[in-house]
Amino acid sequence: MNGTSRAYDVVVLGAGPAGENLADRTRAAGLTSVIVENELLGGECSFWACEPSKALLRPVIARADARRVPGLRRAVEGPLDVPAVFAHRDKMATYWQDEDQVDWLRSVSVDLIRGHGRLDGPRQVVVDMPDGETVRLTARHAVGVCTGTVTAFPDLPGLEHARPWTNRDATAARHVPDRLAVVGGGVVAVEMATAFQALGSQVTMLVRGHKGLLNRMEPFAGEMVADALRAAGADVRFGTSVTGVAREDGAQSPVRVDLDDGDSLVADEILFATGRSPHTADIGLETIGLTPGDWLTVDDSYRVTDVADGWLYAVGDVNHRALMTHQGKYQARIAGAVIGARAKGEALDDRRWGAHASTADSAAVPQVVFSEPEVASVGLTTREAERAGLRVDVVDYDIGRVAGAAQYSDGYQGRARVLIDAERRTVVGVTFVGPGTQELLYSATVVVASEVQVDRLWHAVPAFPTISEVWLRILETYRDRTGTVA
């Protein structure tokens, strides 16, 4: 970049999936866009989360599936080939190089500035570049904050010197520790416990509460995953808090973990997966009257509500609505269209499910936990429906009773739950647990987002014999209970 000052219609801070898509969509709306990033283009998802973690988990899940298929069990005896797994992980993380992402950004005519970007008053962004140069950017219409999140560490004695793992250390690991302590019971904790137990670690999970694993999902999901982890050899402890950690004898020494019951354990590495904090501590929020380090509260068009004149948008994890890559990309598509429409003085279509409405954030957020068994969900849980005051019919079904499940694996164990709004007779929540259920999720998402009535679903015929036939069995169960489906 030559010169010290530039103007664009839209300036985007952060080149993760949300930032990339926001820049792309505003450019597609006819606006000039620039994106500012001080790490790798593609962000957490491409290099330290979604891509490398699923690369570690794919052979784990595939082996588990194969062991349940008659005729394949003997073919998959023995341990996983750890160097081959790591090599595949490296490939999927593109060896932590972002040239492909840079080429894509260029192909959609979005400019890139590498450096640390900070707000410096309304519509102003100052970028400190690696070569020491400073560039000032002015946004004519909007600044989009897409800086994501960072690991949230608890305040524990000795933690800094114990060199704990974050998700980045786990997904980019160069070795498999003999003993791995995992603190937390959410998605990152579950997935990394699943991966490293299968790769050869003795995993101990330390979960502070008594609600179980994956406590934002249906309780049976966490229960089934915990049972599977224990069956694989992991030690899963609930109601256990860490009070201190210490690694006293150098980088290669074990770490001692003190617990609130007075007990302690020793591990070679300790992974903290206890939550995320907004990556907003050093992006200049104080220059526009906001508090550094806070989540950014937005309205349904992703405008930050506490900023006058409506020029600041927050998209993706940083707004704390739904901390998932695909949802951040969805938000970016909506926000990009909103910014484009406002720049042209066009009216917004902000009706429910309209082109400028963020309806899916509250009604149809899909999520997959790549554990063994897999967990897939979209929409509301039973607990959330109750809190919202909805009267729902809860329909449960044993997926193992479906013919396609028996074909998928011997002794298939899985469970489905569908929530049907008793008044509107539409599906408002779906949870599947079991092998292969990740591939059922899009159909469930379409059902929830389309607000299809169950009478119409009766005519959506699932192919036989596939696991998707569970939809028919759920409708039959609902019919037999209520007598209201043909």
TrEMBL record:
One of its GO terms (molecular function) is dihydrolipoyl dehydrogenase (NADH) activity. Pfam families: Pyr_redox_2, Pyr_redox_dim. InterPro entries: Class-I_Pyr_Nuc-Dis_Oxidored, FAD/NAD-bd_sf, FAD/NAD-binding_dom, FAD/NAD-linked_Rdtase_dimer_sf, Pyr_nuc-diS_OxRdtase, Pyr_nucl-diS_OxRdtase_dimer. Disulfide bonds join 45-50. The keyword Oxidoreductase does not apply. It comes from the Bacteria. One of its GO terms (biological process) is 2-oxoglutarate metabolic process. Residues 365-471 form the Pyridine nucleotide-disulphide oxidoreductase dimerisation domain. Binds 1 FAD per subunit. FAD binds at residues 54, 117, 317. Residues 8-327 form the FAD/NAD(P)-binding domain. Its cofactor is FAD. NAD(+) binds at residues 184-191, 275. Keywords: FAD, Flavoprotein, NAD, Nucleotide-binding. Belongs to the class-I pyridine nucleotide-disulfide oxidoreductase family. This is Oxidoreductase. It comes from Streptomyces spinoverrucosus.
